[in-house]
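agent> fetching stored inputs for the adenosine-5'-diphosphate docking request
agent> found them:
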Amino acid sequence: MNKKIFRGTMFVALSVLFASVILTLGILLDFFERQIQSELKNEAAYIAHAIESQGISFLDSLNSTDKHITLFSPSGEIIAEAQDDGRTRNDRTDLDDVKQALESGTGMSHSYSGTRTEKTTYYAIKLTDGNVLRVSTTQYSAITILLGLIQPLILVFVFAFAISSILAYRISNSIVKPINALNLNNPVASDDTYEELSPLLHKISAQKRTIERRIKEAQRKQEEFRLITENMSEGFITTDEVGNILTYNHSALRLLNVSGVVCENILTLNKAQEFREAVLSALGGERSERNMLLDDRIYSLIANPVAENGKLIGSIIIILDITETFRQELLRREFTSNVSHELKTPLTSISGFAEILKTGATDNETVVDFSKSIYDEAQRLITLVSDIIKLSELDEGSIEFDRTDVDLFALSEEIISRLTPSAERADIKLLLRGESTTVSGVRKILDEMIYNLCDNAIKYNKKGGTVEVSVKSDGTTAIVSVRDTGIGIPQAELARVFERFYRVDKSHSKEVGGTGLGLSIVKHGAIYHNAQISLDSKSGEGTVITITFSK
Ligand code: ADP
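agent> prediction call returned; pasting tokens
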């Protein structure tokens, strides 16, 4: 802007100067021309008057004149001539001015020297006797005058250029200074600026407010988006149409095991075939879903193309960790297949016995034996179904159990008295130690937990062995432990005995009426009560299972 004003000012100044010089010169030359003509006319009139009164001899007295004087006859012949100092030219032969004078009384004409450096002006006047008097004078032509003035004119131009430059520089600076000093953060508050800028400043101020509002709105939305995506446990990546990453959340980096800031092509994040296929499919405009195994975890990839006005502009990739869901689904399937299997075995036996019985061809003793087997299998089924129900109640958390204060010592005493007949049958001694200890819990579930532990301790004991239940409290915790002197659990199996339907020795478990769900029920009961389970066992020596409740 500064330069533009400077150039504009210089242009105006120099144009005005140039025009002024040209005009002034034109006016001056015109003025001198008129002056010469007027002088020529006056002198011609004077000489004409003198010739008419004094006769032609008057011309002889005009030797020192700077004009060239000629007297022509009406036919154009020279009658007399008064020479000047030789500078005035009189070589004009067409006699235009003389002819004009003969016609109208006076006449004027001009001629230039061969180099056009001089101009001769002729003035002719007709005398009363019919002769024509011509007076001529020679002066420098306008071109010669101009050429003579070139040097001073150049000096004037240089001087004017210098002055104009300085002034234009100052003017442009003084014009631009208040504009440069504008406070664009608060344009309306700029007092010392041009009045004419006021509407513009108000417009800028309004636009600034609008832009600030929009920026805040955009920042708020971006923050909202960031908060949403950052708090997502799912990974989230957006890309442009060629796969360059635009946004991502930290879950995406965590799930894909990438560290640091990412600003490259999405395909460089992971080399897995499924990941590549999902991304390329989305970038090709097709939605796709794939599962991917990475570092022992299973991820679900959902890749969506993003289009605007029918044109693909990018993709959104969502990464979900489905390991738990996958494992649970696997467990559920395993459980269903185990349940079916466990139910099928007793039902097949029952069906087999009933089939033989219905023929009526069995003797009384066999009928009694078969009936006992059918009863035993039916009891197994009832126990199994009841264990499954208990487990599913604990599993789904669908049932709201009432919590009460339960004395674990009294409860254990009651369970032991219930189990005494079966313990006696197996020649096992049941002992209870400890003191009254109360926890807040669900009596029914606590009963099932302690019952299952004691029942196992009897079932997997040795003839003449003991089962010792101890209940104690240390103020912050209540501890129930069941110790037996039984067959124990091999070290390698310890981690698995809490799994559903897992038995160390399947046939022994069946023999003693086990379902493979007892310890699962204990585990889920403990989870329900926020209690910890510990298991210590030695093959052939015995087992201790301890449940620690926090009070
Ligand atoms: P089950 O109905 O077969 O007893 P559990 O879930 O209660 O099923 O126990 C799982 C397995 O753990 C049992 O089959 C048994 O092999 C082993 N087990 C449980 N308790 C004991 C124990 N006190 N002593 C030895 N083995 C045990």
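agent> quick read of the result: Residues 393 and 399 are 6 Å apart (CA to CA).
agent> awaiting further instructions
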